Amino acid sequence: MNILPYEARGDGTGYSIVVTSGESEIGIISGNLTAYITSDWPRMLFQHSTSPFTPHFDVGYQMMYLFNDTNEDGVFELSEMTYTVYLDHPHVTWNMTEVNHSRDPDIGEYVRFGMYTDVQASRTLENGTVEARDWANASFWFQISENSSNYQNYLGDYTIGGKLWLRTNMTLTITNPIEATGAILEQNLQGGGSTNTFMLKEMTDRNQVKITDVSGWVDETSRGPNFTHPFSNTNEPMQEIEFATEDGTVQAFHYWGTVAYCENETSVFNETVRSAYFTTGSGLTLHSVFPLQNGNMSISEDTSIGIDEDGFIHVQDWIARHIVGIMAIMGSIIALVVLTVFVRKRKKRSAAAQGSPVTHGANK
User: Fold this and answer.
1) What single-letter DSSP state applies at residue 356?
2) Same domain, yes or no, for 333 and 257?
3) Among 6, 40, 83, 233, which one has the highest count of C-beta atoms within 10 angstroms of its own C-beta?
4) Domain containing 338: what range?
5) Can you tell me whether residue 156 is helix, strand or coil?
6) Is 24 within the bounds of a domain?
């Protein structure tokens, strides 16, 4: 898959969404956001549509885990894992819905589509692999709209911005429950070029926002399978990680819900989503924990990705910032051309004065 900058196109109002469907992805151009959603597993590749030096950003959901929280700290460690749930091809085959591209009085032009599949839970033992077939139905729904949309969870209201934001809703319906205290959604984040710094917005004990900078180039997997950083929860309905350059310029973001909406056969309830992270040398892995209850249940959570326009240089801006250098280079080129022509004419005149044959053009 090759993501290339597009010149943003619009209708009479200056905005439109362009959708393309391929064998392996659905592409969306929404103003200055270009995004591809892959069909072999839930993964979003996105970038600025017109900035000449835009990096590629990558947020994907490749697998889940089931675990028993033996130390009761609410954080997932690999030694606590009981089952693995693969979300990628060839372990599962995803079904794509039709793309709904329409207009709404409130959110304006929008695009909405989904992907769904049945997933298995597997466990490798000394005498082979045990599988819990049809453990759950998983679905991911994607939406981008011209105008902002308002949503809410147990902790309050939150807004998904228009044009440059892509909302994702994940719903997991467990139909063949396994004894486990939690399910973990693994989210892999990567930034391209020099945009491989992640700015984590956490809350301190004094209920203040703390920003933690980490580098995706650092490989923390070498510190052992159980190494992880607990993510400090907020009292806000969403938590955020920003993609930034080495100098701290924010170019993209990833939000995920602090609370999951849950439902079982008898009640509707909310569960706090605990998260932890570590860097991998090429990006950041985020683990979000969804507490499980006995029996069949459904879990739903919102996430979103997007770009920050203030972090990009546009073509016009780049020319304006470098106009002096551009003019200097052009002046040097013109001077070099003039000097070359002058030298050639001097050589011709010198050759003619000495009676030498002139090979370029006829003598006059």
Assistant:
1) P
2) no
3) 83
4) 322-353
5) strand
6) no
